[in-house]
Amino acid sequence: MIAPHGGKLINRVASLLDRKKLLGEAKTMPRLVLDNEILKDFHNLAYGTYSPLTGFVTQKDFESVVRETKLASGLAWSIPITLDVTAKQAKGLKIGKKIALTDEKDTVQGILNLEEKYSFSKEEYMDKVFTVRNLDHPGVQMVHKMKPVLLGGPITLLYDDKPWFADYYMTPQETRERFQALKLSTVAGFQTRNAPHRGHEHIQKAALSEVDGVFIHPVIGEKKPGDFKDEVIIAAYQALIKNYYPKTRTVFSVWPVKMKYAGPREAVMHAIVRKNHGCTHHIVGRDHAGIGGYYGLYASQEIFDEVEDTGVHILRYNEVAYCYACEKTVFQKDCPHGQDKHYKISGTKLREFISLKKMPPQELCRPEVAEVLLSYDQPFV
């Protein structure tokens, strides 16, 4: 099986014995409240999703990632995993000491061993990672709202409880075990933040013609208005897999994380995360992790010509359409028929049908999936 990024799958979940000890110590530690989205990153760090990171990045790694798309060690990495605080909060925290990290209900979830406190340039972060400063971009908004001081150091998660959609959430260790149980030597990861349409299905099945299995891994977390809700995406994929996919070659798990909409930079991050889950291949299609025309349609594929050391084979696919002459979905560039024979497939078009409570045509969406989407009164964020 493919090795995790950096060679070792990180596990920062406390044993039962250590948990009791740390909970006792936490009573006298300074506290920081993590919002729900940073708490997801905290879990991703603990479970090894972000291997080789063992905690929130220190300044050297932060600057190297932002400027060079790699960690200070030279290993490919594209988006820094950070914990931001106000200057007042930072002043009360001592380097070398432990900090109790709580959820918004003030329950201690973990510990940060504070190694560094440092400032950063929001402008450089926006320019290098997102390549724009336009506040209409949700990733730029995220950076703009960040507090001015970052904390770096290793973390420990106290509770192995999977607080988000536990029935559908597998850690990297668990997906690796699942792939091995199914005897899947090669697996292609598929990133999505949307309910599935026929274009997604065509790409996933194209990947299945090249590898043993496909790993469908939708993002669960804060998204932009108009995106499908988490529970809707999960239910839609369950219907699609049940009716149209080979059960022994398809693995589904949610990934709790906030979308950054960083286009090419985020595509690199997605490839590394799927590698840590045991994927040998990663699917990158049209406008992967993009938004609003900020990035070229295939910029997220082209970045892998520059960032070559992810250790994952990138499957690059172009636009899919339904061809009336072929009577099936096709990659447009592979079909001999003109656009007058093609039905354009897009997530925007699917959302329009569902928002109008209209059944989309089978060229766009499988009927079983459409029925699930239409069963929700409010399917959108």
From TrEMBL:
CDD domains per the UniProt record, alphabetical: ATPS
Keywords: ATP-binding, Nucleotide-binding, Nucleotidyltransferase, Transferase
Catalytic activity: sulfate + ATP + H(+) = adenosine 5'-phosphosulfate + diphosphate
Domain Sulphate adenylyltransferase catalytic, residue spans: 167-375
Domain of life according to the entry: Bacteria
Residue ranges occupied by any ATP-sulfurylase PUA-like domain in the UniProt entry: 2-158
Pathway terms, separated by semicolons: Sulfur metabolism; hydrogen sulfide biosynthesis; sulfite from sulfate: step 1/3
GO MF term list: ATP binding; sulfate adenylyltransferase (ATP) activity
Class of enzymatic activity (EC top level): transferase
EC number(s) on file: 2.7.7.4
UniProt GO BP: hydrogen sulfide biosynthetic process; sulfate assimilation
Similarity remark: Belongs to the sulfate adenylyltransferase family.
Protein name: Sulfate adenylyltransferase
Organism: Candidatus Doudnabacteria bacterium RIFCSPHIGHO2_01_FULL_43_23
